[in-house]
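Exercise: predict the fold of this chain.
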Amino acid sequence: MSLSSLGKAEDVKEQNEVSGSKGEANFVWRCKSCKRESTATIKNPPQAYTHASPPKQQNIIEFDCRGLEFTEFKSDGEWQAKGLESPTKFSGIDLQEEEWFDYDEKAGEEVSIKDLKWEIRRA
């Protein structure tokens, strides 16, 4: 792999009001049955995955969850990456298939993202 970093293409800035509170959260969910609200707030903003050899596990984002727990991560949306040995920037990367291949003309070699594994764990 000749990519130095991988990150989500769009910023996560949306804030939603928490009813009955002066607070805000990035994600607010209300149960239709009991009307209880649960929230998730981004504690540390998204960080780009940085190339390492051999590849190592890295934290990408950290949430403060109240009344809910995330169980699965789906890499929907567009991602971006930067060449390791060239200044080439790649955008519009679709990782739904958990792999991506392209060609870096400035470096003269194929670039790829493969064997992705996402893990959600408590901090």
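Check your answer against the key: The longest strand covers residues 37-44.
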